[in-house]
Specification:
Blueprint (H helix, E strand, L loop, with lengths): L1 E10 L2 E8 L22 H13 L13 H8 L10 E11 L2 E11 L9 E6 L2 E2 L1 H5 L1 H8 L12 H9 L5 H11 L2 H21 L2 H85 L9 H39 L5 H24 L9 H47 L1 H32 L1
Antiparallel strand pairs: 1-2, 1-3, 3-4, 4-5, 5-6
Length: about 450
């Protein structure tokens, strides 16, 4: 069995699709061993968990599962930055020799958050073709190929193997798995049956007092074995908690170092950005003040200005009419003087004078109907009113709306930045991170002490 490729997609700390080539160097002196190194929290354990999960599914002995159900564990494995529409996926490809032929097998498991029925979807490809028969018998197939009990001898953490090598005898699970892989169950059963037969023969030959002594010893032995099994289970639980606590300690410390510096750097950048926005806000406010000092306030009395424009136009027409009437009266007087020196009859001159008087009287009556001169506006003032009403007020009003919109947006950005600066500059954030680190360290120390105590009790 030779691993070829591992694919992680939205699994743990691996966001998106990540492909790892597991093929060793194919030179003459190469060995089919792949070493994965990295700092704490770099994702090494996640890679091992992904391989175990691909091979064994719900039976996988992953580092972060603990007492979680399989569905909860799958949900926990989905990267926290994964979009709701995307799924988590692990693929493991390996090559195996069977009946003299090489077969390329690819295991595919995928699921989404809160997986339905607490399960993943499994697919098995053999030489790039789906194999339903192998899919239905996968658990039995992989157990014969690589039993779960000895999988940690092939997929292992260096520290775990070191601890395993330092033990005088291997764990029972490893021993049983090796025997199962080598087909030694029959010999073990025969040995057990032989021990039972020998025990029965000895009982038949023993005296009553010897039987009582044997029963007492067996009762004590059973009690000690029960206590020993209980202590071993406690040690296993403590070791699991210890491993989790050590990992949490490393993560808390790394987070403290990373976020501590990040918060300080963000604080300076945010302050510079805040000053730039404040400068823009001050500039906009100055522009609004300049508009308020100009003709913009007249927009509040636009109807009155319109009435004033109409009144001024009427008064101007009245002034022009009165001036024209005065010119006509003067012209009529000079005309009559001229006619008196001509050889016209008195009756004719009288008729002409009556006609001119009648015409002037009509103009005088029309002039009297015009309104009195209240504003006494000249044509230049009326022209300015026209410009003000038709262009300047509308232009300034549109400019004010634009400046106010920008000002509201800038003030919202400034408020958001101020909150970020307050959070970044807050000493409580540093205290919280430091507290996480201290709590993790205390938990590690306590679990180490509990482990030592349990080991002493087991001895």
């Amino acid at each position: 069995m030779l691993f070829r490729e591992l694919v992680l997609e939205n699994f743990g700390s691996y966001l998106g699709r990540n492909t790892l080539n597991l093929l060793p160097d194919l030179s003459a002196d190469s060995r089919p061993i792949i070493l994965i190194g990295g700092m704490n929290g770099g994702g090494k354990t996640t890679i091992m968990d992904a391989m175990r999960l691909a091979l064994y599914g719900a039976r996988a002995q992953c580092s972060t599962r603990g007492s979680l159900s399989y569905g909860d564990f799958l949900d926990q494995c989905v990267s926290r930055h994964t979009l709701p529409t995307e799924k988590a996926r692990v693929e493991l490809a390996f090559q195996v020799a069977e009946d003299g032929d090489l077969r390329d097998i690819r295991i595919v498991r995928y699921w989404e958050r809160n997986p339905k029925d607490g399960k993943d979807t499994l697919g098995i490809l053999v030489n790039d073709w789906a194999d339903k028969t192998l899919l239905n018998t996968w658990d039995e197939y992989i157990e014969n190929l690589l039993p779960l009990g000895i999988s940690n001898l092939f997929l292992f953490d260096g520290e775990q193997v070191k601890e395993l090598a330092e033990q005088e005898t291997p764990p029972v699970g490893v021993f049983d798995a090796i025997q199962s892989l080598l087909g030694l169950e029959l010999a073990e059963r025969l040995a057990a049956d032989l021990d039972v037969l020998v025990t029965r023969k000895r009982r038949d030959l023993a005296t009553k007092s010897q039987l009582e002594a044997i029963e007492t010893i067996e009762a004590k032995l059973d009690l000690q074995q029960l206590e020993s099994a209980t202590v071993e289970r406690e040690i296993e639980q403590i070791e699991l908690k210890l491993e989790t606590a050590i990992e949490r300690e490393g993560q808390a410390f790394d987070k403290f170092i990373l976020e501590g510096g990040k918060i300080a750097a963000q604080g300076k950048e945010l302050e510079l950005e805040s000053k730039a926005i404040q400068t823009q806000i001050d500039r906009h406010r100055q522009d609004l003040c300049q508009l308020a000092a100009g003709s913009l306030p007249l927009a509040l009395i636009t109807p009155l200005l319109t009435q004033a424009r109409s009144q001024a136009a009427l008064e101007l027409r009245h002034q022009q009419g009165t001036a024209a009437l005065d010119l006509l009266v003067d012209r009529d007087r000079r005309l009559l003087d001229f006619l008196h020196h001509q050889s016209l009859s008195v009756e004719t001159i009288s008729e002409i004078q009556t006609f001119l008087t009648s015409e002037n009287h009509s103009l005088e009556q029309a002039a009297e109907l015009d309104p009195p001169a209240w504003l006494a506006a000249d044509p230049e003032a009326i022209s300015y009113l026209d410009t003000l009403l038709k262009s300047e007020i509308d232009r300034d009003r549109a400019l004010v709306v634009k400046l106010q919109t920008q000002l509201i947006k800038l003030e919202a950005e400034l408020d958001f930045l101020d909150r970020q600066i307050a959070e970044a500059a807050s000493p409580e954030e540093y205290i919280r991170l430091k507290a996480q680190e201290s709590t993790a360290r205390e938990l590690v120390s306590q679990l180490k002490a509990d482990k030592i105590t349990s080991e002493r009790l087991n001895q």
